[in-house]
Amino acid sequence: MAKQAIKVENLVKHFGKGDSLVRVIEGANFQVDKGELVALIAPSGAGKTTLLMMIGCVEEPTSGKIYLGDELVYDNRWLTKEQRKIRREKIGFIFQAHYLIPFLNVIENVTLVPQTNGVPQKEAEAFAMELLDYFDIADKAHNMSSELSGGQNQRVAIARALANKPQIILADEPTAALDSERSVSVVKMLKKIAMDQDVAIIMVTHDEDMLPFCDRILKIENKKVVSHDVPKNKDVI
Ligand SMILES: Nc1ncnc2c1ncn2[C@@H]1O[C@H](COP(=O)(O)OP(=O)(O)O)[C@@H](O)[C@H]1O
Ligand SMILES: [Mg+2]
Q: Which residue's alpha carbon is at the smallest distance from atom 9 of ligand 1?
């Protein structure tokens, strides 16, 4: 089986046109392999979220190619009308805010997508309990999100992102709302998921303290994506 989980070729993204044209990405080329936890860093407004949303089949690129696993999903146009299906089956999203549905309890939040994908309720619940257990939060399975702390909700959000057994996790500043101790615990968890389940994870972060836990850094520089090694001395970056 190929190692590649995400591959991007000559990816371009512009917003608007004429006088209001914004050139965000101008020919990005990079690959992320299964089992890798990669940090995506760049100044605010450089296009980190836009890049994740293109890989996640949410935002349409201007041109280029995107492969998810071995499947070419975008080649100057979406190659299927079913981006939503690709998204549901291959990708887990984690955001800064947990976006749990407030009127569903924890386990209902975690089983929502698998059930939408046709997984029988019992099977979805059993796997959700495994995930909640893994994140040490199984005792909260029947609580509402409002009854959980920020760190607990973020762990539920990560469990939810894993519930459809994605090959790829896209995390947009998942630790931005957490204190440093909880941030480290979330990033270590992501690293463990990448290794144990052979998932490719791209994590946007502004927190340099998180970089040593990642395998590699992708940086948006001059509207392109450049790969860097993780600094041994965190003052380097
Ligand atoms: N829907 C949109 N329409 C027009 N411009 C957008 C849109 N979304 C993002 N942009 C612009 O694209 C650039 C990159 O935004 P974004 O990906 O959110 O950056 P980051 O996540 O790195 O802060 C910014 O200049 C932003 O204003
Ligand atoms: Mg952003």
A: 50
Nearest ligand, CA 47: 1
With a Cβ cut-off of 6 Å, ligand 1 is lined by 15-16, 22, 24, 42, 44-50
Summarize pLDDT for 177-208 with one digit per residue, the tens: 888 888 898 899 899 999 999 999 999 999 99
CA 121 to chain centre: 25
Give backbone dihedrals phi and psi of 183, rounded to 5 degrees, phi first: -60, -50
- Domains of the chain in sequence order: 29-59+80-228 (3.40.50.300)
Distance 137 CA to ligand 1 centre (A): 35
Q: Relative to the alpha carbon of 25, which ligand is closest?
A: 1
109-134 residue pLDDT tens? 999 989 988 999 999 999 999 999 98
Write the CA distances from 43 to 49, 205, 206, 210, 223, integer angstroms: 11, 10, 8, 16, 11
- Is the pTM here over 0.85, yes or no? yes
